[in-house]
Amino acid sequence: MRHAMTTWKIAEYSDEHTAALEAWRRHCDEAHPQIRAIRCYMFNGGTEYVWLEEFEDYRSFQELQESVDDRCSAVMKPVMEHAVPGSLRTGFWVDAI
Fold it and tell me: Is there a smaller number of Cβ atoms within 10 Å at the N or the C end of the chain?
């Protein structure tokens, strides 16, 4: 398995941010069959987040990147508007063993 990982911080927990995360998840479920599973974790009192998208292989991830459009940006915007500037990090994880 492969995972695209995004982390960020928000100033304080909010229901508005949680609703935006739920909308992002629904969009991914409906528009991006390349994503096998999504996990979203919060910690430190709901002020730090990890979003993981699971892919079968790197090719599936590349297909997703090629399919990103204005709808994707519109769904992610309310999530990222809550992010503390400079806190957003992304990466691509693979199993080490």
Answer: C
- Report the domain count for the chain: 1
Tell me, letter by letter, the H, E, C secondary structure of 34-72: CCCEEEEEEECCCCEEEEEEEECCHHHHHHHHHHCCHHH
Supply the pLDDT for residue 3.
95
Q: What pLDDT is attached to residue 6? A: 96
Q: Retrieve residue 81's tokens.
A: 């508007």
Q: Is 33 helix (H, G, I), strand (E, B) or coil?
A: coil
pTM listed for this prediction? 0.91
Residue where the block lists tokens 């599973």 = 37
CATH number of residue 19's parent domain: 3.30.70.100
Q: Is the pLDDT assigned to residue 97 strictly greater than 90?
A: no
